[in-house]
Amino acid sequence: MIKISQVFDTTRRLRELMDNLRYLADQNNDSVIKIGKITFATPLSITPIAAIINKKNLKHSYQGENVSYLKTIYFPEGVLEIDKIIPRKTYLPIIRLRLENSQEKENITRQLGALHTKYLDLLKINVIADQRFLELITNNTFGLLLGEMFDNIAEHSNAKNVYLFAQYWSKNNACEICILDDGQGLFGSLKNAGRNVENDQDALRKILNTGLSAKTEFGSIKRATGIKNTRAVITNKEINGEFFIMSGNAAFLQSAKRKTFFSLLNYSWNGTMITMRINRPISQFDMYDYIK
User: Fold this and answer.
1) How many domains in the chain?
2) Which CATH number belongs to the domain containing residue 245 in this structure?
3) In angstroms, how far is the first alpha carbon of the chain from the final one?
4) Structure confidence by residue, pLDDT tens digits, 62-72
5) C-beta of residue 123 within 8 angstroms of C-beta of residue 93
6) Fewer C-beta within 10 Å: the chain N or C terminus?
């Protein structure tokens, strides 16, 4: 059974998520799964579950208390056309962008670019009800964070599906965004580009520690700055947020106080998942202080 508790701590939510993902991995395609009572779910907790349910075409049943909430966030199917999103005050529902029919890279880049622009507008207008939050963090910060993630998907993922879910909590002055894809993952991307990587763990460490990238420019390796900049902007002491990334059986979690690499036991995520927790800064924030 899928179980999502009313927990805000990221480490505990990750343990719970892994239990849920392993449960889903054990299910046969087209089978029926059960979903326990859900009273609270963060983007990190629910978005990966939606992606796997759709991928395996799983049927689901759930207790009556969940019906309204799950329908409201379009779980698990997601909104397939961003223009049809109904504005809400504190969240954007699960959005699913299908790229399987887009063979040309130019077309994929165009689709992701359009989603980036529209999603950023919706995020600023409908999700962040606290305008002071936006004033302090600035529009450019959200634009950079989303842009870097979409660029990585367009350039490296070879994904068929992209999922997004954003939630803002006024009580905590925090916004969380989960972006994931079902592509070749970090190791696959680097390996196919001819980089010297041994496995998922090695690939993730080299991306985060040395800036290794699958990109090339004028015949040489172009160092990856996207993930490095994203981490720096989110996890500094001003925003005091969290950055989480998972690909294959490798994962990494960083906050202003700690950073941790870890291996997933008996599970591998096919693609790349990134979650960003952004807290409202106390004073005016300038992201360019953290971009190199």
Assistant:
1) 1
2) 3.30.565.10
3) 45
4) 666 677 888 88
5) no
6) C
